[in-house]
What does this fold into?
Amino acid sequence: MARAAFEALDPYNDNSFLLREFTEFTAPYHFHPEHELTLIVKGKGNRYVGNHMDVYSSGDLVLIGSNLPHCWKIENDEEQDNDVASVVIQFNNDFLGTDFLAKPELSQILDLLERSKHGIQFLNPTAEEINKRLILLAKQPNSFKRLIEFLEILYALAISKEYKLLDKQETKAHQSVKKERINTVLGYIIDNYKDEILLNQAAALVNMTPNAFCKYYKKTTKKTFIETVTDYRINYAIQQLVNSDKSISDICFENGFGDLSHFYKLFKRKMKLSPLKYRREFRKDTA
It folds into this structure.
């Protein structure tokens, strides 16, 4: 079972920031105090940032704020190439020294890092430009040039208007009993929303009775546990509606809805359109 686990990063080896390339996405739903800039060079699947879920594909560029839970899950498709690759940069607020980012010349970068507490997805043409620069940065052997280029990249992201905020609820994980409970439950939902999810099992994971758990969850997240599960399921159903030709029935059952009419009812309540009409309207708008 995945949970929002705390990740202690490897030593920076005398560098001011950590740059790594990955060819597999195995990290669970996790968090760390460092900011993280992630470029998906190759691959596709689901991206989780706080309480936000969306699909990702090659070229996806996201800045994750400090202690914001996140993970990337690959799409397991026997008919598709499941090879994945990413470039990841992780850095602290004081990666250039205490109060360095407080300098007037760096105010826009400081504002960028403040916005990153929601998670930021960068859109084209900014994403295309930064993607190329990150791939070159990963190959740069000179540490001084790497640092200067990284600052240039942060500045380009800071002044860009081509982005969207992901987790509007500003989920932030801490190593505390209260937050650890919510993180554990969110990890359980992320791993199991396509299958049967049981309230009793979720409550047991955090050592609470179902009644106490429901009250605690609603007070902490401002949503009921069932509303959260339904939101995850409908969000993924939407991605399948617009990105595949699967039947409404297949999409319904693949995403944990055990009854087609119930799926239609919940979908229409949330999206104000039936699943079929939503697909038609989307394709008409993008034709």
